[in-house]
Amino acid sequence: MGITDDAIEVRAQGWRRLAALHGLIEAELERRLQASHRLSVVEYTVLDALSRQDGWHMRMRQLARAAALSSSATTRLVTRLEDRGLLTRILCADDRRGIYTELTPAGQELLHRARPTHDQALAESLEEATRTPELADLVAFIQT
Fold first, then answer.
1. CA atoms within 13 A on the CB side of 40
2. What pTM did the predictor assign?
3. Hey, CA dihedral for 92, 56, 43, 41, is it positive or negative?
4. What stretches of 17-139 adopt beta strand conformation (E)?
5. Are 91 and 98 contacting, i.e. CB atoms less than 8 angstroms apart?
6. Strands 87-91 and 99-103
7. Chain segment 61-104, per-residue pLDDT in tens
8. Measured distance CA(89)–CA(44) in Å, rounded
9. Whose CB has fewer CB within 10 Å in the chain, the N or C terminal residue?
10. CA angle 48, 17, 15 (to 5 degrees)
11. How far is C-alpha 125 from the chain's CA centre?
């Protein structure tokens, strides 16, 4: 095994550690958000992304990037959230082809109630990860 092979293995190990940490956190967030608010992690991510925008709306393409979803998955997710009254779609005044997704008052309220659950689950997941030797330094890096 040469130097190049060693470098590849180091990167692969780093990637596996990052994936393990992500999986641990996402599983706990999913469990808590579903149990307390009937929200999935990706639904929470969409509501949160919209809440952080000036005017509380985004183009569908921007929302897909924020949620790390394909365009078709984003459309299905937006439809589900729209059916629940948590967001709405509006046509862009400047470009009739553009569609904005906007948080409704019900979506704002649900996000307001869910945010403490999310934040606590995230903090506790990171704390749990510090007790796993392979993840402890990664968590320390994230929290700096």
1. 8
2. 0.87
3. positive
4. 57-59, 87-91, 99-103
5. yes
6. antiparallel
7. 889 999 999 999 999 999 999 999 999 998 877 766 678 899 99
8. 17
9. C
10. 85
11. 15
